[in-house]
Design a protein that fits this description.
Strand content of chain B: 35-45%
Oligomer: heterodimer
Shape of chain B: globular
Distance between the termini of chain A: 27 Å
Number of domains of chain A: 1
Mean pLDDT of chain B: 90
Order of helices and strands of chain A: HHHHHHHHHHH
Number of helices of chain B: 8
CATH topology of chain A: MetI-like fold
Mean pLDDT of chain A: 84
Strand content of chain A: under 5%
Shape of chain A: globular
Radius of gyration of chain A: 22 Å
Distance between the termini of chain B: 32 Å
């Protein structure tokens, strides 16, 4: 019984703040406080009228799309190497690649800023954000894809080659379809991480802010808080949809490969 | 018989590890050939060098008259059945079997479908084409793997421990089926196995490997009756070893065997180039016998005491102690009608015959 109370309290603690988002997004009043003062969709209308926001969203979508593709490609290479081959210092190398997963983002952000500006003398742009996001998303991609590749029998590619296919077409015809669910969930998760990443984007963004950076800028104006709430509501909805798709695909992939589900990364 | 595969002076190193040591081997067309040995002996590595998954460090691999140096697996006239079967789980049975036909541009769809049907019929899976591959049982996967490899009509079919994942009944059934299949298609099969019984049952010839080298290469009967050394004798079947002293080497060989006494054996019962002095003789348990009450024999006999009795149903294995020998003799007796199972401690007479001895260096 007490365990049940604990579980419920835990869920409230986790999700209550998120429930507040839509609550105030539809609230007719600029002050974020109870009691609610009536239903409105004007904050959502205001969203569609803000030109600067559209730019920020566009930037973020571009960055997130490219980041997810690049980190997934790197993730496929690393996970395949880790699952199929043995090489010297394998554990150490994999460990180093996974390190950004636990490094404080602020440290990564500051050191990248130093590297980009002071050492490479590059100007900050969407590309610097993409590079940094690939760095932090790749470990997630590897973690997801590891699951897919670990379940793969290394003889599969050899069998395809034995039946006349080249190394590349063996990978394309056999390995790729079998790890495809992992690839899609890696794409979606990297996309989500990049989309709402703030600290690194804040340091490395150029003249065009990303969406989270833009939201942070809005917070200085108390009047625009409900707009932020409206935007936040949309983002939460989108994230939930993306992650659900990722998980469904992962499970379907497990079933297709005929392996037992050993719990999920998510 | 024509040679199909020949390996000359093949060596393989992984760093400092010497995985294959100077392998010289010829495998004939239409032969059922087995590579037998304990795990880690290099038999799978050798198979993979023939398949083209591993290069050789030194030496030459020739298949069908062509040097295979630099020829990748997909260009070799070999196909393989993997230990895990490596059935593609995202494809149907028919798609799996047809996988190798993708590169056959001269075949149209109807011809390919026909070939798939034939291959599935051959392995007893007629009508299974539309099944999903991951829903198959172990034995069915194995058949799909066979059909998938044989549809390409390779010169050589390589089998890497294909029966090890099956239970005993299924394994015995598949042994017979594999032999029948090999006779039917008439191509060379090379089987890798650690199961000596499997190798003896199925093979025309067997190469027994230890630590990267071939210990003995012979047909099953020679391998069993005339092992060329203690390693082979110990690995294949059960064998009693007795210390012996070679006293004369001529047309026949005189040996003084511990516990059994002096006897004369034929030259073919000893490895060539045997020297005078200390050696060992091996005796298979089933070539010894216990003389039960009322039986007589014109063979050699010696008194012994039953030390251990292991009852198998169809057979009883006795460990019998005889004077002057430290180790007991293992004797296999069929449980024929009216034949008692002796108790531990029973006094017995052991019957032996010099013709069943094999002299080991």
């Amino acid at each position: 019984m007490s365990l049940r109370i604990y579980a419920i309290a835990y869920l409230i603690f986790l999700y209550a703040p998120i429930v507040l988002l839509p609550l105030f997004a539809f609230n007719d009043g600029t002050i974020i406080a109870f009691p609610l003062s009536g239903f409105t969709t004007k904050w959502f209308t205001a969203l569609t009228d803000t030109k600067a926001l559209h730019n920020a969203v566009q930037n973020s979508l571009f960055i997130a799309a490219l980041t997810s593709v690049l980190s997934t490609i790197l993730g496929v290479c690393a996970a395949r190497a880790g699952a199929m081959y043995n090489f010297p210092l394998k554990r150490g190398i994999i460990g180093l690649v996974m390190l950004p997963l636990v490094l404080p983002e602020i440290i990564v952000a500051v050191s990248l800023l130093v590297v980009v500006v002071q050492m490479l003398h590059m100007s900050l742009s969407n590309w610097t954000v993409i590079a940094a996001h690939v760095l932090i998303c790749t470990p997630f991609s590897i973690a997801i894809l590891n699951g897919a590749f670990q379940n793969l029998d290394p003889s599969m590619e050899e069998a395809a080659m034995d039946l006349g296919e080249s190394r590349w077409s063996a990978f394309r015809l056999v390995t790729l379809p079998l790890v495809m669910p992992g690839i899609i969930s890696s794409l979606l998760i990297a996309f989500t991480i990049s989309l709402d990443e703030f600290i690194i984007a804040f340091f490395l963004t150029g003249a065009n802010p990303t969406m989270p950076v833009y939201i942070w800028g809005l917070l200085r104006f108390p009047g625009s808080l409900p707009i932020v709430m409206a935007l936040g509501t949309i983002l939460v909805g989108l994230s939930i949809i993306l992650l659900t798709i990722a998980e469904i695909l992962r499970r379907r992939g497990m079933a297709r490969a005929g392996v037992k589900d050993k719990g999920s990364f998510l | 018989m024509t040679a199909l595969i020949s390996l000359t002076g093949v060596n393989k190193y992984y760093g400092d590890y010497h995985a294959l040591r100077d392998i010289n081997l010829t495998i004939n067309e239409g032969e059922f050939f087995s590579l037998l040995g304990p795990s880690g002996c290099g038999k799978t590595t050798l198979l993979r060098t023939i398949a083209g998954f591993e290069g050789v460090s030194e030496g030459v691999v020739v298949i069908g008259g062509k040097d295979m140096q630099g020829v990748p697996a997909n260009m070799r006239p070999t196909n393989m059945v993997f230990q895990s079967y490596a059935i593609f789980p995202h494809l149907t049975v028919a798609e799996n079997v047809a996988f190798g036909l993708r590169k056959k541009k001269d075949m149209d769809k109807a011809a390919k479908d026909l070939a798939v049907d034939e291959a599935l019929t051959m392995v007893g899976l007629k009508g299974f084409g539309d099944r999903q591959a991951h829903a198959l049982s172990g034995g069915q996967r194995q058949r799909v793997a066979l059909a998938r490899a044989l549809i390409l009509k390779p010169k050589v079919l390589l089998l890497d421990e294909p029966l090890s994942a099956l239970d005993k009944k299924m394994r015995e059934q598949m042994q017979v089926e594999l032999m029948r299949l090999q006779r039917h298609v008439g191509i060379t099969f090379i089987l890798v196995t650690h199961d000596q019984e499997e190798a003896l049952v199925m093979s025309d010839r067997i190469a027994v490997m230890f630590e990267g080298e071939i210990g003995q290469l012979a047909d099953p009967e020679t391998l069993y009756r005339r092992p060329n050394g203690r390693r082979v004798a110990e690995f294949i079947g059960k064998m009693n070893f007795l210390k012996a002293n070679v006293t004369n080497v001529g047309d026949t060989i005189d040996v003084n065997v511990d516990g059994l006494g002096p006897c004369t054996i034929a030259a073919e019962q000893a490895p060539s180039g045997i020297n005078l002095g200390e050696a060992a003789v091996g005796i298979r348990p089933e070539t010894l016998a216990i003389l039960f009450d009322g039986q007589t024999t014109d063979r050699e006999t010696i008194a012994g005491t039953v030390d251990e009795v292991v009852y198998y149903g169809d057979m009883t294995y006795y460990d019998v102690r005889i004077d002057g020998v430290a180790e007991t003799l293992n004797i296999a007796m069929k449980n024929l009608i009216g034949r008692p199972v002796l108790d531990v401690g029973a006094q017995t007479t052991v019957v032996w015959d010099a013709r069943s001895l094999v002299l080991l260096p």
